[in-house]
Every structure is written in structure tokens, then in C-alpha cells.
Amino acid sequence: MKTVFSGIQPSGEVHLGNYLGAIRNWVALQDQYRCIYCLVDYHALTQTYDVKDMSARVWDVAIDLLALGVDPERSTLFLQSMVPEHTELCWVLNNVTGFGDLERMTQFKDKSGTQADNINVGLFDYPVLQAADILLYKAELVPVGQDQVQHLELARRIARSFNHRWGRVFPECNPLLSSTPKILGLDGQAKMSKSLGNSITLSEPEKSVRKKLARAATDPARVERTDPGDPDKCNVFTLHGFFSDDDTRGWVRQGCTTAGIGCVDCKTKLADNVLAHLGPYYERRAALAADRDRVRDILHAGAEKARAVARRTMDEVRGKLGLWR
Ligand code: AQP
Question: Which pairing describes strands 34-39 and 174-176: parallel, antiparallel, or unpaired?
């Protein structure tokens, strides 16, 4: 059985981009593969954050993942910092990673712009820690959003370089994209992202979801209510693609291209469908939030399972490196 690995930063609550780009795939893959999912808290250190918020962020993301359907009976869910082999393997992999390769990473370039006051070495080395996360479990499939594909190409190169220099340990890993791999921000710019403040988090109250969607950018050609638009250039229509049925999508496409409906009609329908889709998640989230011991136990049990695999891989790696024991 193939191994699937993926991670998410506990840098706040899960947003629609995370869900549509990656997490719904995490849930779907659980029946077919050995799935390992990780809250990558060491990755989150690369951004400026308030120490007193970190633990709440971990809770929020853990609860969100479980409420969305990550099932601890079928998958391993754990916190990265509870398995120190991640950073250990990262150090080893640093030695087969080209400086120039890291300089070319789009995420590093983007983040260097948006957090210019904190361009740290961790941010630069982020893709190597990500490669270590994946390779530690010899994962072959990595469900991610489009923004992570470049990092996975690098992870493959790093694995090859390791195998070439020290002997074969790691398999090739491949990205697994959902049908909505890139959700744009509500401002219509770049990608939906917490740090850009253009996201909707799943746990937001109904009023806030409706308000944010009502203000979401649409096809720029639709300036007036009477202007026809192109749904394929509209992020709101991309969201309908997942949350609405064929009839609704047909109604939107027809109404938008002929200016038969306004953006308000289209967005109201979308908000209804998003909220209806998230109904079961709201219920499960409330139950989990009231049972913190259970969530803590799940993360501890997950870390123990992950660590057993991670230790074996690191023993193998140290053997290949010729380190003294
Ligand atoms: N807009 C998106 N569209 C599709 N997929 C996305 N992902 C993130 N944004 C989008 C995917 O979600 C998974 C977790 O990503 P992450 O750990 O980078 O999550 P994040 O830190 O919460 O993402 P943000 O909001 O983009 O964080 P910041 O602003 O802190 O950088 C990944 O598989 C990712 O591809």
C-alpha cells in the first residue's frame, strides 16, 4: 500500500483554499492509502507570530482537520515538533540541496516580499524541511494545492541526490492535485492565503461568510449589473464548481454571460451552498472543541506511530551516511 503524506501549518484556522486545494483530498484518500497528516508547527516559525497564540492555533487546525473528516482510526495525525527526526533529516538533506535551487523557489521570493522585515534562514530552508517531512515516511503521494508543486519537484530532486550520493533510501514523491488546486483570494489576487488577509476560514460565523463572499472580486469585466461576464474568469464561479450542483452552475453560467443575473444573486446562492456544505463540519467542530482531551490523545497517539516510522528511516539514513554508532 502506498504512503500518502501532507502537512499544514498551524498558522490560524483552515480556510477555503486549504480545504478545496488539499484537505478534501486528504479525507478522500484515507480508504485507499496509508495516510500520514502533520501539523507542521516548525514550518510556522518561519513567520512572525505571537507566542501566546501558538497553542490555540494548533488546537484550531487539529480540530478543523478532524471535523472535516481526517479519521484517526485510518490516518496518522500528529504535530511535527513531537517527532524530532523531521529536523534531523532536514539537516542531512541540506547537504544535497543546491543553494541556487532554494533561491529559485517562488514561495521564498513571494514571502521575502510580504515579510520583508523577517527574511530568515528558516524561510529559505522551508522546502528542505518539507522534503524531510515527506521522505521520512517514504511517501509517494502528496496531496497539496498548486502552490506547493514547485516544492515537491525540489523534494524529488533532493531524494535523487541523496540516493545518488549515499545509496538508495527514498522513493520518488509526486503531487496529487484536487480539481480545485488554486483558489484565488477574495480580492481576486494571487492565492487565497491567511497572511494576505484575503481568505474565508471555515469556522467563520454565517454572517461573516456571507459578508465576505458578497464583497469577493468577480470577473473585472462586470462593472455594471448589465455587463455580461465570463464565469471562467471568475473566482466565485470556481467556488460554485465545488459547492453547487450542475443545475446551479448552469443557471450561473447562463445568467452571468447574458447579464441575466447580477453578481449579488450568484454570490448569495454560493453563500447558501457553502454554509449548507459545511453544516456537518460545524456540528463535529463544536463537539471536538468541547472534548480537548480526545484531541490531545489523538495527537499524542499519532506522534507515537509517526515516530516509530521516523526512527527506522533515520537509522537507515545514518547507516548510509557512515556515521559512527
Ligand atoms: N489558495 C489555495 N488554493 C489551493 N490550495 C491551497 N493551499 C493553501 N492555500 C491554497 C494548500 O493548503 C495546504 C496547506 O498549506 P499551508 O500549510 O501553506 O497552509 P497555510 O499556511 O494555511 O496557507 P496560507 O494561507 O497560504 O498560509 P500563509 O499565508 O501563512 O502562507 C497546502 O497543500 C497548500 O497547497
Answer: unpaired
